[in-house]
Amino acid sequence: MEENTPKILVAEAIAEDAIEILKTAGQVDIKKGLPPEELKGILGEYDALVVRSQTKVTADLLSHPGKLRIIGRPGVGVDNIDVEAASKHGIVVVNSPLGNTVSTAEHTVALMMSLVRQIPRAHGELKGGKWNRSLKGIELRGKTLGVVGLGKIGTQVAEMARGLKMNVIAYDPFVAQEWADRIGVTMIELDDLLKQADFVTLHLPLTPNTDKIIDASKLALMKSSAMLINCARGKLVDEQALYDALEKGTIAGAAIDVYSSEPATDNVLVKSDKVVVTPHLAASTVEAERNAGTDVAKQVADVLKGLPPTTPVNAPIIPAEHMALLNPFVDVAVKLGKIAAGIMEGQVKELVVRAQGEIATVAIDPLKVEVLRALLGTTIEERITITNADAVAKERGLRFREERDSNAGNYTSGLCVEVVTQKGKTTVSGTSFQGRTYLTKVNDYILQIEPQDVAMLFTEHVDKPGMIGLVGTVMGRNTINISQMQVSLGAHAGGTAMMALCLSQPLPDDVFQQVLAIEGMLKAKTVILK
What pTM did the predictor assign? Predict the structure, then answer.
């Protein structure tokens, strides 16, 4: 082996086909299960590192990266890799976002079929010596499947269901109906989907907004004959509420592959006769492992040969002088994206990111990415980067563009996010001053408030005396601290006003309903910031 031959460290088991591809690019050393200190001690000797989910690639591990140029992660998730630390050292991180798509979709359909035909029960009884032909199933043909999250896996499930002659409806506010029409899917609101669907399948990432998105109140909306399938993230479902709903007959059954804590041998759902369970197997197929492994191996080999990767997780290097100007606006972009996502209504058709003033003189790609991440973060797991941002928007049927305006009004620089849906347009603007983020406008309401607490409440109400006191009373009565509050009047006196409140905790639904019940309250929206 020549002295300059790249060295590749494979720290976990990957497909043999992937190993063979890596060997075409350099010397491959397979050292599985190394303790962190031992791995840290040798990491700088290698040009590439390949890990799966067990190895924690922390900032400390990368503190002395030596020759390391690329980290490969077969699969979608990169939670075990400190991507920011890698970026600081100029290390490329690549993954394989499509590797397990088909396997997970097929497992979802397999669980649904097992559930409706009572296959696990029939199997167990026959193995136990009982011949029970009285078990009756349900046909899928003509039934309605509700897909919550129409990303890559959700889309695959929808297409498979259409092949089974099922009707498919979906909830995903960031998929244009025009795009969904091409695969025969009707986009509707989540509550309507839960009321209409015979089967509900979840395909969302876990975020503060999706944590327990299916709780007791949502389960109560479903048909008593409906069934729930979850092959995404265990914490999307309130497991105790699901168990209670099954015991009470609120819904008829469930099929679960993921759990709030794993291994899940003592999980309450595992003990229910109305639940078909598997131990997190959705992505566990020979093909998925091979596809993910070979995809990442090809990218590692390409980078070591001086070629660009196809699915980089971290962004390319931006000139330092540009980032000095943009860095204060990264938090602005994130907060505007989250606020826009929280207060908009309907299916998104177009997204505009508008740079104003001084920041309009440089490329704002990093800010566009942060806005898109904040908007789509509740519905897709794929990491959005400068490289793939436009493609991610396009594949969901969204028009995604940037605009520049040399005039930032009263500020040196400003950022504006405009979201167009079939129900109208939502516009939010903000700026950064002395390193602090300010929300400066929501639609036609002018504000100057720091969106820095855990959550925010936005209300639109009749402009009349006492409204501030009434909202404050609701918060105080429910021991919810208000760190900031601001009121902005509409264009006409005696018309409408907006109240923006920063809250110390997410607003519970019952408290939110108390706010909506205030006389003169026209509209209210909550946004989780952290």
Answer: 0.83
CATH class of the domain whose range is 101-277: alpha beta
Q: How far apart are CA 211 and CA 234, in angstroms?
A: 9
Both tokens assigned to 85: 């630390």
Domains 7-98+287-304 and 315-443 share a fold: no
Q: Does domain 454-530 have CATH number 3.30.70.260?
A: yes
Q: Which CATH number fits domain 315-443: 3.30.1330.90, 3.30.70.3270, 3.40.47.10, 3.20.20.220?
A: 3.30.1330.90
pLDDT (tens digit per residue) in 361-386 = 999 998 999 999 999 888 887 778 77
Instruction: Give pLDDT tens digits for 327-337.
Output: 999 999 999 99
- The sign of the dihedral angle between the CA atoms of 470, 473, 474, 475 is positive
For 328-382, the DSSP string reads HHHHHHHHHHHHHHHH--S-EEEEEEEEEEGGGGS--HHHHHHHHHHHHTTT--S
Active site residues: 233, 262, 280
CA distance 273 to 359: 59
Say whether 463 sits in a helix, a strand or coil. Answer: coil
Top-tier CATH class for 7-98+287-304: alpha beta
Alpha-carbon Rg for the chain in angstroms:
25
